Amino acid sequence: MLEQKYIYDLVEKFLEGRTTNAEERELYDLFKRDDIPLDLIQLRPMFRWYEEGMPEPKTEAKTDPETERKTEAKPSHHTLAIGWAAVGTIAASILLIGLVWQSHRPTFETIYDGSYIVEGGVICDDMEYIEDDIIDLLERADAIESRADELLAWAEI
Fold first, then answer.
1. Distance of alpha carbon 31 from the chain centroid
2. Are 2 and 30 in contact (CB under 8 A)?
3. What is the pTM of this model?
4. Is the pLDDT of residue 102 over 60?
5. Residues 135-150, buried b or exposed e (16+ Cβ, 10 A)?
């Protein structure tokens, strides 16, 4: 009899979808044997079903062909084509909206275009160079504004 922990670990790995084909084959063979743990016997039909390629359940043959045609109605190729066309249209619309939104969204450079700093008497307007300085100044301005709001709230008490 194989070590029970190994069997439990292999079953858990299978149920999580992490087994290799060789491990699955090993499980199928294990569940054909009689010496598997008793609390796993209820899994035997499941592993047999997987081993057989997951066949559809067999149903009784119907005698009335008209009833059979009504119960097994399949979508026509036309219906499927319309469905796929709708899915394609929706996907294209989402892509188009995303592209338009992205192209009209202001970037850092366009918002602060024309900004500059003076360092050592030299004017610098290279956005890549001054971007960190602008962000730092904005953060400091926000802190000053928050402090002013606190002081005004305190003054109104």
1. 35
2. yes
3. 0.36
4. yes
5. eeeeeeeeeeeeeeee
Give the Å distances, CA to CA, from 76 to 79, 83, 131. Answer: 5, 11, 59
**pLDDT value of position 116:** 79
Task: Give the pair of three-digit tokens for residue 21.
Answer: 């084909």
Which tops the pLDDT comparison, 101 or 108?
101
Q: φ, ψ for residue 58 (rounded to 5)?
A: -80, 140
Place of tokens 């598997």: 36
- Residue whose pair of structure tokens reads 């699955």 in the numeric block: 24
Q: Do residues 9 and 37 make contact, with C-beta atoms less than 8 angstroms apart? A: no
Reported confidence tier of residue 56, pLDDT bands at 50, 70, 90: confident
Under 8 Å between Cβ of 136 and 117: no
Tokens 């008793």 sit on residue = 38
d(CA 28, CA 44): 8
Q: Which residue has the tokens 């953060």?
A: 139
